[in-house]
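Researcher: Next sequence.
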Amino acid sequence: MHASICDTLSDLVQNALEAGATRVELDVYTGPDKVSARVTDNGKGMDEATLKQAVEPFYSEAGKHDHRRVGLGLPLLYQTAQAVNGTVDLRSTPGQGTTVAFALDAKHLDTPPLGDLAATVLGLMTFRGDYDLVLTRKTPTAGYSVSRRELTDALGDLSEASNLVLARDFLESQESSITEE
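Model: Next structure:
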C-alpha cells in the first residue's frame, strides 16, 4: 500500500506523462464516506493485452525502467481498493489515452490519508515538457480547479524559485479554503 493517496495520484500522473500525454485531468473528491479520484490522459493508451499486464506487479513497459522490471503503481492501487471495500476502474484506448478511476471507503481504518495534495500537484506541475495538468478538487460543500497552463500564464516558469513559491502558496490557500469548512 502507498503511504498516502497522493502517492497513488503521483504514480498515475507520472505514468500518463511518460505515456506522452499532453493533457492530464486529475479529479479528486473527499467526503465523509468516500475518497475518489480520476486521472484521465490523452497519452498513447493501452491495448487489451497491455491492460491485463499493467495490473501485474512484475510488469513494466519495455524501456520504461531499464534498471528494474517491476511496475507497482496499479497493483498497489488495486490492493488498496480491495483492502478498504473500494473500487478501481481502468479504461484505455490505444492512441487516445487512459482513465484510471478509484473510490475508497473514507471510514475504513486502512484507507490511506489523502496526503499533501497541494505539494503533490505542484511537484507534478514542475515536470519538464509541454503538457497541461488540470486539477479539479471537490468536497461535499466546496471545490476549486486550477491548471498548469493557468499558473504558468499568471506566474511564469515554474522552475524559477519565486514563481514556485507563489504557486505553492496559491495551491495551499485553495486546499485550505475547502478543507477548513
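Model: The chain has a mean pLDDT of 91. The radius of gyration is 16 Å.
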